[in-house]
Specification:
The radius of gyration is 24 Å and the shape is globular. The chain is an alpha/beta fold. The protein has helices spanning 18-21, 27-30, 70-76, 96-99, 109-122, 138-149, 164-170, 189-197, 201-204, 228-240, 273-279, 316-327, 335-379, 413-426, 459-477, and strands at residues 57-62, 78-83, 130-135, 155-159, 176-180, 182-183, 186-187, 211-214, 244-248, 293-298, 310-315, 385-386, 395-400, 432-433, 448-453. The strands form four sheets. It has a seven-stranded mixed beta sheet with strand order 3-11-10-9-8-4-5, sandwiched between helices. It has two domains: 13-28 and 105-336, Type I PLP-dependent aspartate aminotransferase-like (Major domain) (Aspartate Aminotransferase, domain 2, 3-Layer(aba) Sandwich), CATH 3.40.640.10; 379-477, Aspartate Aminotransferase, domain 1. The structure holds 4'-deoxy-4'-aminopyridoxal-5'-phosphate (PMP) and pyridoxal-5'-phosphate. 4'-deoxy-4'-aminopyridoxal-5'-phosphate binds at residues 46, 331. One of its GO terms (biological process) is lysine biosynthetic process via aminoadipic acid.
């Protein structure tokens, strides 16, 4: 942005792993720049001729704004078409022959431009040399990021309950997690400072961590959302201890309307796109004056997870290292997915239409959240279970006062958790145990909770499942209605 004088990001050479520092990328891709030479006949790159791609046109029916529902789309959706040679024919800036051939690790310039603009609209990072790269979703981005920063034997920091795949990604890379206490707002800033200030290399068997993995919104599994002040406090701790932050934020746009309970009228949806954007909690990226954040965004929860497309935002230095890795591993995101999302987002909806779709999702998830919270109010025994309505995401944590169980303390937390889990199964409902999400299995926990998701089941099934959960709890605890 030319008129704002922004400074450059910090340099992170001293934090990069040996693997990352020694990546030279894909040497065959380096000759790509010569392809621009006028009159050049290339017998160079082994890009197959698109003549042999057995695909002529791609056609998809999608919602016509503002008619977002399945039924409306079937009725009055818009059919988008991509032809094989739309570029040559001047019909589009992107086509099948381009998208379906080899591309760049950073992603196709067409969809990349869209996500960069979107990132500027939503987050406007406060330093000069930020950039984006397409990813194959946050699972892949996180795996590549850990390899980029950590050596075997390092520890990284995260919420004490964390997305289990993050632990399962780090573990075979030889990276353990140091867990940081949480409260209703998720990661604790003072807890983070305490862990770092009192770090004992000998006792921990690892040097002081410098990488923080956090899921700041609708955290998986607790559903917690960090407020703005909490983030500012955590960012200040990150500056004090010179941390690099991995912001894994697939639920950013599943921030919901405030929860008001059944006896109050629903708060009206945001009146305008501006009001919608203002209602969103500022991301770490939006406050990242140092360039110490890698923000991972994913289309999984807002468009479709099977398309495997996301993007990440960080300083040029980090993006360059990341794409050098992508060039020789994933080779970048799927061309089919990039073309499909480009057609939808850039050529059909544009930024405004995409934001309107996100408001639609916000209202849908609000309804779902209200259904599960209403069912909890009706069916759960308050003397042993407590919950807070989530502000975002798709998870409702149900906290159990296990010390009131008749078998406590003869049975441990984990034994009781398993007993309740099995009682739920016997009663016909499945929830996930909180202990599946321990960041560090060696840390002692004294809280028990179950994770319920409200993202998929029909409303009446959500209601029934919670009722069964309540019955299972009553049975296990030996309490009557
Ligand atoms: N292995 C060999 C021997 C190749 O020649 C190529 C393509 N040039 C690849 C792997 C890359 O394959 P893919 O496109 O499936 O990643
Ligand atoms: N990160 C978190 C915290 C998640 O909860 C999930 C989805 O379950 C993912 C990442 C996976 O995202 P993606 O589909 O972009 O790989």
């Amino acid at each position: 942005n030319a008129h704002e004088k922004k400074h450059k990001a910090k340099n992170w050479d001293y934090r990069l792993s040996l693997e990352c520092r020694t990546r030279e990328g894909n040497s065959l891709k380096k000759v790509a720049k010569y392809l621009m030479t006028p009159g050049l006949i290339s017998l160079g790159g082994g890009l197959p001729s698109s003549e042999y791609f057995p695909f002529d046109t791609l056609s998809v029916k999608v919602p016509t704004p503002p008619h977002w529902t399945e039924a409306e789309t079937r009725e009055s959706g818009t059919t988008l078409e991509a032809g094989k040679y739309d570029l040559q024919l001047g019909k589009s800036v992107y086509d099948i022959s381009t998208a379906f051939n080899y591309g760049l690790g950073i992603g196709s310039p067409q969809i990349l431009r869209f996500v960069i603009e979107h990132t500027e609209i939503v987050h406007n990072p406060p330093y000069a040399d930020w950039n984006c790269t397409m990813t194959v979703g946050n699972t892949s981005a996180l795996e590549m990021a850990i390899r980029m920063f950590c050596e075997r034997g390092d520890m990284m920091l995260s919420e004490e309950y964390t997305f289990s795949a993050a632990v399962e990604t780090a573990s075979p890379l030889g990276v353990k997690i140091a867990s940081v206490p949480m409260d209703e707002e998720g990661l604790s800033a003072t807890g983070l400072d305490d862990v770092l200030s009192s770090w004992d290399e000998k006792a921990r068997g690892a040097s002081k961590p410098f990488l923080l993995y956090t899921v700041p919104i609708g955290q998986n599994p607790t559903g917690a959302t960090q407020g703005e002040q909490r983030r500012r406090d955590i960012y200040a701790v990150a500056q004090k201890h010179d941390l690099y932050i991995l912001e894994d934020d697939p639920y950013y746009f599943l921030q919901m309307q405030p929860y008001v309970g059944p006896d109050h009228p629903d708060p009206p949806p945001p009146k305008s796109r501006e009001e919608f954007l203002k209602s969103l909690i500022p991301s770490y990226l939006s406050m990242d004056v140092d360039g110490r954040v890698m923000r991972m965004d994913s289309f999984s929860k807002v468009l479709a997870p099977g398309c495997r497309l996301g993007w990440l935002t960080a300083s040029e230095q980090i993006i360059e290292r990341y794409t050098k890795h992508a060039d020789i591993s994933t080779q970048g995101a799927s061309g089919l997915s990039q073309l499909l999302f480009f057609k939808l987002l850039d050529e059909h909806w544009d930024h405004g239409g995409f934001l309107d779709w996100l408001v639609h999702l916000r209202m849908e998830y609000t309804k779902r959240r209200n259904v599960i919270v209403g069912a909890c109010d009706r069916y759960l025994p308050r003397e042993i279970v407590s919950w807070a309505p989530p502000a975002a995401g798709m998870f409702q944590a149900l906290h159990i006062d296990y010390k009131k169980h008749r078998s406590y303390p003869a049975k441990s937390l984990l034994e009781l958790e398993d007993e309740i889990f099995m009682a739920c199964i016997a009663n016909g409902t499945l929830l996930i145990k909180g202990s599946c999400f321990y960041a560090d299995p060696t840390t002692q926990h004294d809280t028990m909770f179950f994770r319920a998701t409200f993202c998929a089941a029909p409303f009446d099934k959500i209601e029934e499942a919670i009722k069964r959960f309540g019955d299972a709890l009553r049975g296990s605890f030996g309490i009557s209605n």
